[in-house]
Amino acid sequence: MTRLTVNNEAVEYRMAPDTPLLWALRDASNLTGTKYGCGTGSCGACTVDIDGKAVRSCQVALRDVEGTFVTTIEGLSRERAHPVQLALIAGNVPQCGYCIPGITMMAAALLKRDPMPSDEAIRAGITNICRCGIYPRLVEAIQRAGRAIRGDERLPAAPRPGIDPAEAARRVPALDPAAGR
């Protein structure tokens, strides 16, 4: 059994000690914001914060995180109110969104260490892979998040997630096959 703190809650995992932290978070804790991407630590989709450091959770065994404090994207801010999340949304950075939780965690750790990183520091610090190619907008969004953290800029609130199911799709009579068309 491995004991650690996940998103400020004490957790005891009754899984094999060599289980990657990624699978403990996703399968046992149902924290599915941490994504499986490559399984080799290359892509960064599984990035979480362990004791203040951005770590690829697919590369860390449970036995290696005994007693640590782990923060996932859900623990960063379920309401999408963290400055990095707000800046990414305001800059229209997310496309497919699969890499965004890992990038967000990596950027949050970077800004915790250096709230005023240069463009070069951001490019060197964010080593996550995004197949959609968000990189040009990503650098500016992280700069904006840094300004917000320092109090130099106010970011707009994020829109509420999701859509009302009643508004998601409506039957339009002119397109309805039952209407004779």
Automatic annotation (TrEMBL):
Top-tier EC class: oxidoreductase
Alphabetical UniProt keywords: 2Fe-2S, Iron, Iron-sulfur, Metal-binding, Oxidoreductase
Entries under Pfam families matching the protein: Fer2, Fer2_2
GO MF entries: isoquinoline 1-oxidoreductase activity
Domain of life of the native organism: Bacteria
SUPFAM superfamilies reported in the protein's UniProt record: 2Fe-2S ferredoxin-like (SSF54292), CO dehydrogenase ISP C-domain like (SSF47741)
This enzyme's EC code(s): 1.3.99.16
Domain 2Fe-2S ferredoxin-type: 1-76
Gene3D superfamilies associated with the record: 3.10.20.30, [2Fe-2S]-binding domain
Chain segments carrying region Disordered: 153-181
UniProt name for this protein: Isoquinoline 1-oxidoreductase alpha subunit
Originating species: Sphingomonas endophytica
